[in-house]
Amino acid sequence: MSIFRAFICLAALALIFDTAAATNFTVGGPTGSWDTNTNLQTWASSQSFLVGDNLVFQYTPNHDVLEVTQANYDNCQASNPLQTNVGGITVIPLVATGKRYFICGTSGHCAQGMKVEVDTLAATSPAPPPTSTVTPPPSSPTPAGSPTSSPAAPESPANTPPPPTTSVSSPPPPPSSATKVKLMVGSTVGLGFVSMMLLAL
Predict the structure, then answer these.
(1) How many CB atoms lie within 10 A of CB 40?
(2) Is-contact 101 120, C-beta < 8 A?
(3) Does the structure show a pLDDT above 70 at 131?
(4) Considering only CA atoms, which of 61, 72, 58 is closest in space to residue 100?
(5) Nearest to 171 by CA among 131, 128, 137
(6) DSSP the chain
(7) How confident is the model over 97-121, as pLDDT tens digits?
(8) Tens digit of pLDDT for each residue in 41-86?
(9) Max CA pair span of the chain
(10) I need a labelling partner for 50 at 20 to 30 A (CA). Which of 25, 87, 141, 198 fits?
(11) Considering only CA atoms, which of 130, 96, 101 is closest in space to residue 118?
(12) pTM exceeds 0.85
C-alpha cells in the first residue's frame, strides 16, 4: 500500500511540475518559422509570453537572429545588434518583463517582415488596485424662513469638486495555445498514470 501512495504522490508532483514549467515558443508558430513567408507580427500578438518562457528560433543558414534596440527594430538597422545568433536553432530565455526586439540581419529580410517584437509579462500579475469614484457630499437644504447672510458665491474652478474618476482596464490576454496544450498534455499524462496505478492494484 505504501508503494501505491508513493506512485500517487509522484504522479501528482509530475502533474504540478509540468503545469508550472516554462513554455517553449517556436517563433512563427506551428505552421511557420523564422523566415520571410511567416507573418511574425500576427503570430507574436496572438501569444502571451511570460518570464521563464523561451523563444525558439528555427531557421536556414541564410538567416540569423539579431536582438536590437527599438530604434534599430523600427528602422531595420542590423549594424549595431545587442546580440547576434547563427546556426539554425537559437533559444532565447525570457528572463525579465518588458519588450525585446529581434530582426534578421540578412539584407532586405527585415524590410520583408522578418522581425518580431516580444512583450514579456510577469509570470503572475497582481490584481489592479480597486478604483473609487469621488462623489460630492449632498448639500443640505436651507430650512424655510432661515435668514441668509449673503448671496451664494458663484462656483469658481477652485471651488468645483473634481469630476468622478473611473478606471477602464483591459481584460488580461488569453492564455497562449502553447500553454493550453501543455496543461492538457500534463493533465492527461498525470491522470493516465494515476488510472494505471489504480488498475494495477
Answers:
(1) 24
(2) no
(3) no
(4) 72
(5) 128
(6) -HHHHHHHHHHHHHHHHHHHSPPEEETTTTT--SSSSS-HHHHHHT--EETT-EEEEE--TT--EEEE-HHHHHHT--SS-SEEE-SSEEEEE--SSEEEEEE--STTTTTTT-EEEEEEEPSSPPPPPP-----PPPPPPPPTT---SSPPPPPPTTTSPPPPP----PPPPPPPHHHHHHHHHHHHHHHHHHHHHHHH-
(7) 999 999 999 999 999 999 999 999 9
(8) 999 999 999 999 999 999 999 999 999 999 999 999 999 999 999 9
(9) 93
(10) 87
(11) 101
(12) no
Mean pLDDT of the 189-193 span: 54
Q: Considering only residues 112 and 123, tell me which one the structure prediction assigns the higher pLDDT.
A: 112
Which set of grid coordinates corresponds to residue 65? 537572429
Residue type, 80: N
156-182 mean pLDDT: 43
CA atoms of 201 and 194, how far apart (whole Å): 11
Nearest to 47 by CA among 113, 148, 119: 119
Q: Rounded mean pLDDT of 165-194? A: 46
